[in-house]
Specification:
The chain is mainly α. The chain has one domain (17-72). The chain has three helices and no strands. Helix 1 crosses helix 2 (35-46), helix 1 (17-33) packs across helix 3 and helix 2 runs antiparallel to helix 3 (51-72). The longest helix has 22 residues, at 51-72. The termini are far apart.
């Protein structure tokens, strides 16, 4: 497994470019300052993910956190 010889596909550009751009720098900062996301990034790096793939994973996690906060209406509680 993992060596099928298929070429890797690029990350899709479908979706909001504004949202992607808005989440990029917060993801970079969160990687260094949020202990949970730092652990997540370290785990992805150990699994052989490339740096930009790690940032995209952090962006996704941040987006899920933001959505949960907005949906619940509760203040952010780290």
């Amino acid at each position: 497994s993992g060596t099928s010889g298929r070429p890797t596909t690029p990350i899709t550009k479908v979706g909001s470019t504004h949202l992607r751009r808005a989440l990029f720098m917060p993801a970079m900062t969160a990687r260094n300052n949020n202990p949970l996301l730092k652990t997540f990034a370290d785990r992805l790096q150990e699994n052989g993910k490339k740096p930009k793939q790690i940032i995209i994973g952090i962006m996704r996690k941040l987006l899920h956190q933001i959505y949960g906060i907005l949906k619940s209406g509760e203040p952010y509680n780290p």
